[in-house]
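User: Run a structure prediction on this.
Assistant: Running it now.
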Amino acid sequence: MEDMQEVYFHGTAPPSGDPMSVGVVLVRDGDEIDRVSGVISYPGDRERAQWEALLQAMALAAKHGVRRVVFKGDSMTVINYMNGSTIGRGFESMDYYKVARKDQLRFDQSFFQWVDGDKNRTAIGLSRAALEV
């Protein structure tokens, strides 16, 4: 059976909300396999940017044929939603949640884990660098 892969993700949005950016890193056995970063062409807040980053993380894992994966992000809101333990459910987050649940079906096993910023430095750096273009 395939080993569990890790995908780190982070989304950033300045106070104005325009533009948002994402950073994603795929890791296999402690080695970086691929990374994605970029600017999202429509405005949004930090929470929306984190959801966009999760969707990009799922797309990157699927592109590489990953079947077992842990998605690791520093957004407690996104991780809690995906783990079914959030209290308030905003309409926008629910829309993203539905898309993410559908995308989750691409994988045999998938888990969602919160990590602090120190462990998510590469994804954070990619996301921030995308805004410095």
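The chain has a mean pLDDT of 92.
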